[in-house]
Amino acid sequence: MDDGTNRLGWMLDDALRMPETRYAILLSADGLLMAHSERIGRDEAERQAAGMSGLQSLARSTAEFCGDAGTPWRQTISEFDDGYVFLVAAGPGAYLAVSATQHVDMETVSFRLQELVQRLGKELTSPPRPGADSRA
């Protein structure tokens, strides 16, 4: 991935321009690393991607506790003594995770992550093939 296949990494680095943010990864629903910020190595990013996949799966399984088992999962925030992990839906089968210190402005991070998700959505969606039938 560090050999040029981390094509969306620059977008994650851009998201980390907020004060008190640490790392960012983009992962698939099955826990595969899709992209990572420059501040985190590939091996660590892959390990975290696997863990984040499990975290979002657990969060999704508790939707009924919020009122309806069919309610779509959108975001999970985990708090630790040293900071936070924000995990958000980033499109069909993709999730974005950002870690930050305990001094981060949580509202600003949540807002910026939603902006990034919009940008990533455009990158993750494949454009129609030329000549493809639009009725398909």
UniProtKB/TrEMBL annotation:
Domain of life: Bacteria
Record-annotated Roadblock/LAMTOR2 domain positions: 9-100
Pfam family, one: Robl_LC7
InterPro entries: Mycobact_SerProt_Inhib_Rv3364c (IPR053141), Roadblock/LAMTOR2_dom (IPR004942)
Protein name: Roadblock/LC7 domain-containing protein
